[in-house]
Each structure stands twice: as structure tokens, then as C-alpha cells.
Amino acid sequence: MKLINVRKWLLMKLFKKPFFRFLLVGGTNTVITYLLYLAVIQFFDYKIAFTVSFIVGIFIAYGLNSFFVFKTPFSWAKIAQYPLVYVGQYLIGLGLLFVAVNLLRIDARVAPLLNVVILLPFTYALNKWFLVGRTK
């Protein structure tokens, strides 16, 4: 019984941490966009599949990161600017994907998962800076 209380307490403490919530949101977004990527790659080249799933993921990320992770109010101005947060990540991710698929010969269905791991700290920092501000 006490072990359950410790787990519940620990989970509640973790949910107070923005980085933990970011990981949870990112995991959810990754699953959704990866499934979309796998669907689109059935009909188009991996670069197109990556681009489509990436764009959809930006809008999912804005909603979840804004409301759940950093608890900032919705803003049409920010949602219009939010894709700029991901321009660098997209270009780096597409480059990493190219290297993984064409040079390292990693399966195009698996290669995008490497991007997630490599770019995670960069993405968190950019999201926090954009949604919360430079001073916090």
C-alpha cells in the first residue's frame, strides 16, 4: 500500500516539471506523427512523408506544449510564428534523415526515430524560449 502512495507522490512531483510534461507530450506527438509518416511513406518518398508528418506535428506540438507543458494562453500570433521554432529542427532533421537512409543504410521507416533522440534537447530549449520567453 505504501509503495502505491510513493509511486503516486513521485508521479505528481514529475508532472510539476515542465521537462517531464514535455517528454510526455513529445512521446504522444512522436507516436501520432510516426504513424502518419508510416502511412504516407506507403504512397510517397520518405522526404515527402517526413515533411507532411513534420508539419502536422508542429500544430500538435503547439497546442500540447502551450497548454499542457508551459501553460501559456493560446495566441493566434504565436501559432502563426510557431513553425519558425521548427525550421532549424526540420532542416537538421532532414539532413540527419538523409545521412541515415542514404549513407548509413538505415531503413527509412526507422531512421526518423533517431532524429527524435538527437534533437530532443534542442527542441525543448526552443519551445521553452518561444512559449515562455527569454527571461524565464
Protein model, in words:
By secondary structure, this protein is mostly helical. It has one domain (17-131). It is 80% helix and 0% strand. The chain is built from six helices and no strands. It has helices spanning 2-15, 18-40, 46-69, 76-81, 83-103, 111-131. It starts with a helix and ends in a 5-residue tail after the last helix.
List the topology elements.
Blueprint: H1 2-15, H2 18-40, H3 46-69, H4 76-81, H5 83-103, H6 111-131
Helix pairs in contact: 2-3, 2-6, 3-5, 5-6
Element-by-element helix/strand order: HHHHHH
Largest sheet: none
Approximately how much beta-strand content do the residues carry?
under 5%
DSSP summary, beta strand count: 0
Helix content: over 70%
Radius of gyration: 17 Å
Class by helix and strand content? mainly alpha
How many structural domains can be distinguished in the coordinates?
1
Regarding quaternary structure, what we see is single chain
Average predicted local confidence, pLDDT: 86
